[in-house]
Design a protein that fits this description.
Number of domains: 2
Order of helices and strands: HHEHHEEHEHHHHHEHEEHEHHH
Largest sheet: 6 strands, parallel
Distance between the termini: 48 Å
Number of strands: 8
Number of helices: 15
CATH superfamily of the largest domain: Nicotinate-nucleotide-dimethylbenzimidazole phosphoribosyltransferase (CobT), large domain
CATH architecture of the largest domain: 3-Layer(aba) Sandwich
CATH topology of the largest domain: Rossmann fold
Strand order of the largest sheet: 3-2-1-4-5-6
Radius of gyration: 21 Å
Shape: globular
C-alpha cells in the first residue's frame, strides 16, 4: 500500500569506509558517526549535507479536552497558533536560529483565526479539515473522511518542503488534549498499561492524571472492536494533527527525505507509520527523550534510541529543532575532517 523508498546501502558502505579513514580512533565520535552514515544512505552520497531544514507544525483541537484531561482550556490551541504564526513561540525562535523554513498548519483548530480580522499571519497555512476532533469517549475521534483529509494535509506539507529544496523534515504539533490521544494510541498499539504510561501532559495534577487514565481506559474499552488496524486506532482515539503527522511521515518515507521525530505526540504518529510500513523507520531520526513515559514505551516497541535527553515536555517540534545543529555537525565532521592519508598521520600513531 505504501511504497517506502529504499535507502542507498552503497552510499552507507562508502560513508563507513570514509569514517574508518578519518583522523580519530574508530567510534570515538559515537552517534555522530552513525548519523553521518545514515544520512549518506538517505542522500545517496558519501558525504551528506544538511543545508535546508524545514519545520511544519500541525495544530488541531481535541473533543476529549472537554473531559478535563488538560491543565489548559482548548482556547489555548488557538492562541498558540497565533503565537506560532507571528514568530513568538519557542519553535519559531529555534527555526530562525537554525535557518529553517517554518510554517504552522491549521488542520482543525476550533476557531478559524483567519476570520474576523485584518491581522495577517506570516507563517500560517490554513488547511482546515474540521473544527476539532470529536470527543472519543463518546464516539470515534474522526470519521474516515476526516482522517483521510488530515493525512493529505501532512502529505501536502512534505510536498511544499520538497518543492522548496528541503533536505530535512521536522514536524511538530499543537493541540490541547493531544497527550491524551497519543497515550491512548500508544497504549493500544504497544499493548501497554495506561496507568503505567500516562503522563502529566501540560502540567496536570495527580487528580487530573487519575481522571486522564480513566478516560483513556474507558475509551479503549469502548472502541475495542474497531481497533482492526493502526489507522483505525488513529481514527478512533487520535486527532486531526496526529493524522497529519502520520500523513507527513508516510510521505517522507515514500519520497525519501530524512525526518526528525520530536516528542511523545510525534512518536505516536511515527509508531502508526512503522506499524503500517516498517521500513519507514529507516528514514527516521528520533531526536529526544521527553519526560512523558509513553514516549519511552514507543522507543522500546520500535527498538530505537533518541539523540538527546533534556527533560523537555514542550512539544511544538522543539526537541527535534534542537537536534538540527547536532545533525549538521555530524555531516560537517564526516566531510571536513582529514583522512590519515591527507594529514600524513599513521593510524598506528592514533591512541585508541
Amino acid at each position: 500500500m505504501f511504497d517506502v523508498k529504499e535507502v542507498s546501502r552503497k552510499s552507507e558502505k562508502e560513508a563507513l569506509v570514509r569514517q574508518s579513514q578519518l583522523t580519530k580512533p574508530q567510534g570515538s565520535l559515537g552517534r555522530l558517526e552513525s548519523l553521518a552514515v545514515l544520512l549518506a544512505g538517505h542522500q545517496n552520497r558519501t558525504c551528506p549535507q544538511i543545508t535546508a531544514p524545514w519545520i511544519s507544525i500541525f495544530a488541531a483541537d481535541h473533543g476529549v479536552a472537554s473531559e478535563g484531561v488538560s491543565a489548559f482550556p482548548s482556547v489555548v490551541t488557538q492562541e498558540m497558533v497565533k503565537n506560532f504564526s507571528t514568530g513568538g513561540a519557542a519553535i519559531a525562535v529555534l527555526a530562525k536560529a537554525n535557518q529553517a523554513q517554518f510554517e504552522v498548519v491549521d488542520v482543525g483548530v476550533l476557531a478559524d483565526i483567519t476570520q474576523g480580522g485584518e491581522r495577517t499571519f506570516e507563517f500560517l497555512q490554513s488547511c482546515r479539515v474540521a473544527s476539532g476532533s470529536f470527543n472519543f469517549l463518546q464516539q470515534p475521534a474522526m470519521t474516515t473522511e476526516m482522517l483521510n483529509k488530515a493525512m493529505a494535509v501532512g502529505c501536502n506539507a512534505v510536498d511544499r518542503a520538497l518543492s522548496a529544496g528541503a533536505d530535512l523534515f521536522i514536524a511538530g504539533e499543537m493541540g490541547i488534549g493531544n497527550t491524551t490521544s497519543a497515550t491512548a494510541m500508544i497504549a493500544q498499539i504497544c499493548n501497554a498499561s495506561v496507568e503505567d504510561i500516562v503522563g502529566l501532559g501540560t502540567g496536570i495534577d495527580a487528580t487530573q492524571k487519575t481522571l486522564k487514565a480513566k478516560v483513556i481506559c474507558n475509551a479503549l474499552q469502548k472502541h475495542e472492536r474497531a481497533f482492526t488496524t493502526p489507522l483505525e486506532v488513529l481514527r478512533c482515539v487520535g486527532g486531526l494533527e496526529i493524522a497529519a503527522l502520520v500523513g507527513a511521515y508516510l510521505a517522507c518515507a515514500e519520497k525519501g527525505i530524512t525526518m526528525v521525530i520530536d516528542g511523545m505526540i510525534t512518536c505516536a504518529a511515527a509508531l502508526v507509520v512503522c506499524e503500517i510500513a516498517p521500513s519507514a523507520k529507516n528514514w527516521m531520526i528520533f531526536s529526544h527523550q521527553s519526560v512523558e513515559p509513553a514516549q519511552q514505551c514507543v522507543f522500546e516497541c520500535l527498538a530505537v534510541k533518541p539523540l538527546l535527553d533534556l527533560s523537555l515536555r514542550l512539544g511544538e517540534g522543539s526537541g527535534a529543532a534542537l537536534s538540527i545543529s547536532m545533525i549538521k555537525m555530524a555531516c560537517l565532521l564526516h566531510e571536513q575532517m582529514a583522512t590519515f592519508a591527507e594529514a600524513g598521520v599513521s593510524e598506528s600513531e592514533v591512541v585508541e
